[in-house]
Amino acid sequence: MIMKIPNKAKEYYLRAIELAHTLQPRNFNTDPWFMKAKQVVEMYQKKADEESRSLYEESRKEFISAQTDELEKIKKASEKDAVVFLEYLYKTHPPKDKAHTMEKRPTEMTSEFKKKALVKAILHYHPDKQNAQAHGMLWKVLCEEITKYLNVKYEYFKD
After folding, report:
1. Which end is more exposed in the chain, N or C (fewer Cβ atoms within 10 Å of the end residue's Cβ)?
2. Which residues contact 153 (CB under 8 A, 6 or more apart)?
């Protein structure tokens, strides 16, 4: 009966796995009950991850729809040269950290410069580096979209 309550079932399976690990050097990895326990815990974890992801995606929708025009401009700019795209980003959507600026353009443009500039921009705009509480969720979602375009550009220069 308890296995029909997902939170309790996951908890008990985890406890069984932890207990099995404490009985080392004996190895239960090939025992059917242990493999089943691992499988069930992974299933519950995937389900929890999917639910979490869908909730996050749902909350993002309102921020995406609020910025459709700006995202369209970013998409158009991303179709241009990497340096032109970076200049557009740093001009229209400068990073919130004032220390994050674009490097000065060298006299001779090389693919190595473009690659390094893209890596720096990805770090500057990466959503994990953005403080949603300080700058707002709108900025974080915008940075997620910017990072997607920057990663596409970077893939071109990757060896």
Report:
1. C
2. 78, 82, 85, 118
Q: What is the DSSP letter of 24?
A: T
> What dihedral angle (degrees, nearest 10) is formed by the CA atoms of 110, 111, 117, 118?
160
Tell me if 126 sits within 8 A of 97, measured CB to CB. no
d(CA 138, CA 24): 50
pLDDT in tens, 1-43: 456 787 788 899 999 999 999 998 889 999 999 999 999 999 9
Residue 77's CB: how many other CB atoms inside 10 A?
18
This prediction's pTM: 0.73
Give the mean model confidence (pLDDT) for residues 56-69: 91
Q: Measure Cα distances from 118 to 22, 41, 78, 85, 101 in Å.
A: 47, 39, 12, 10, 12
For the chain, the straight-line distance linking the first and the last C-alpha, in angstroms and rounded, comes to: 55
